[in-house]
Amino acid sequence: MNPGLSVTKLNKLVSLETLALIAIAIAVILRIINLGGREFWYDEVLSLLLAAGQKTAYQTPTDVPVALAQYTSLLSLPVESGLGGFIATVKNFLLSLLGGEPHPPLFFLSQHLWLRLFGSSEAAMRSLNALFSIGAIASAYSLGKVILGHRGGLLLAALLAVNPFYLFHSLNVRMYGSLVLWTILSATALLHLIDTHQTRKIPQNRRQQLLWNILLIGSVAAGFLTFYLYLYWVITLAALVLYLDRRHWWQHGLRLASGIMLTVPWVVWGAIKQIRNADLKRFGAIKDSGSQFLAHLQDAAQTLGTNLILGDWVTSLPSISVIVVGCLAIALILTCIIQLWQQDEQKNLGIAVILGILPLLLALVLDIATKKSTLNFGWGRTMIMILPGCLLLITLWLETALSRQWRIPVASALLLLYLTIGMSDFSLRQRSVFHAVNDLVSQQANQPTLIAMNSKAWGHVMRLAYYISPKTPVMLLAEHPIDLATSLEKVLENKTQPYSRILWLDSANPVWSRLKTPADVEREQQKTQQTLSQQFQLQQTQTLTGTMNLDNFTVKLYTRSPAK
Predict the structure, then answer these.
(1) How many Cα atoms within 13 Å fall on the side-chain side of residue 399?
(2) What residues does 452 pair with on adjacent strands?
(3) Taking residues 64-69, what's their average pLDDT?
(4) Backbone angles phi, psi at 538, to 5 degrees
(5) Where are the beta strands (DSSP E) in 207-340?
(6) Backbone dihedral region for residue 548 (phi beyond 0: left; psi -120 to 50: alpha; all else: beta)
(7) How far apart are CA 77 and CA 129, in angstroms?
(8) What is the per-residue pLDDT across 98-135, written as a single tens digit (0 to 9) for each?
(9) Would the pTM count as exceeding 0.85?
(10) How far apart are CA 368 and CA 363, in angstroms?
(11) Left if phi > 0, otherwise alpha if psi is -120 to 50, otherwise beta: which for 549?
């Protein structure tokens, strides 16, 4: 069969515009049908706790069992009596952001208001980010259109819509979905304003000119109040001004500065306190100078591979696989750059490289200077702001470097690849760990049950509280792995509070208190098992897995021995 003939038939069968619109429609449908398709993961339930304004009421479990229902109440708005109660809730909400939370307030504030309107179900909490993502897709069309025209805008919007990484974060109760919206809006508004200055045309509608000014200033302020590393993006926008419109730098600079100035009240009142309370040690230090540069390059490769190809699959793959995919992403970017340069597309190429690569280089340089590893922190999500620029580079390559004969087949293949990766993520990787725990509890819902868990991590505690009905008589003993057996023994010696059943949740990743070696883990597991076997019989063992090691548990159900 002649490949050229097949390509010609495909070109006649569907236009690139139709292909892009179909991809966008599928992407929107995927967002809708997957709103409640998965459990909250670790960070999502923390977002709910913060949005409810209840973080200050959270108390870390001690060595004494506590009713799990006490934590369940923290995942909804507190009871409010009139205006005073509302003000108290908002005050607690703001104060909760200062106690170690490293992110600014805008995302949590928007989720707080959304929580008041629609409740705390999975679908309700995720729907706001899904709406933000649809806004980002529409903004991507405007960004592509100002550079490449209508077809280019549709193609960029389609690539963003089906990109696996952005599809995941569109349904993730974290700030990264809205961050992409502020990123695209600010770049689009700035390019429109630059175009007005360069062409010296008087806008037919001054309201439109005012709108672009408001969008630029507002999106800069919103981006910085959503994610502090958005500062990289502000620097990127400044570089874009110097590249395209140096003559009017002070006017554009004034707009960018105005956006930052709007955030000063929060910076003075809140951000400084957050920095003082922040746990900066979580960003790993690279001590070996010999391997430092290689480690930073690996971080950059993993970031690009995650953002452009793998999406949330990165949480299930070994690092070496992610690095290999990252090298493929780098090869694709270099191919786009070289072929666009050969096509004399230097101006638009410069725009795409600045928007897509410069923020990554800024973060890389800072990591090298500070000997820290922040670039790939959180599986590449801290650099999600590079995604629109990188996709713009690919769109520019598809539109101008490829021949008309191959444009639609290559674009179709890329869109299909993205859809396959994204759809397989949601269909093949289920996350229903705590639903399974609730099913075990519900088998004998009226029997007093103790859940013994080797983790004090609040993401684990609050996920238990969210998914187990507060009407069941469940007590929780959450301890560090090294202390669980001892605390459990003391609890079982207390005859005044007998338990019919014990659920032992053995976390593969206790987060705050991991044991150092596998031998240590095995030793503590044996101690816990011996403690339980004195009064209880093992009835059921179940291995629970999710989309990352934070989800992985071994659950063992024990019932009281008849003779004891």
Answers:
(1) 24
(2) 477, 504
(3) 94
(4) -75, 125
(5) none
(6) beta
(7) 20
(8) 766 788 999 999 999 999 999 999 999 999 999 999 99
(9) yes
(10) 9
(11) alpha
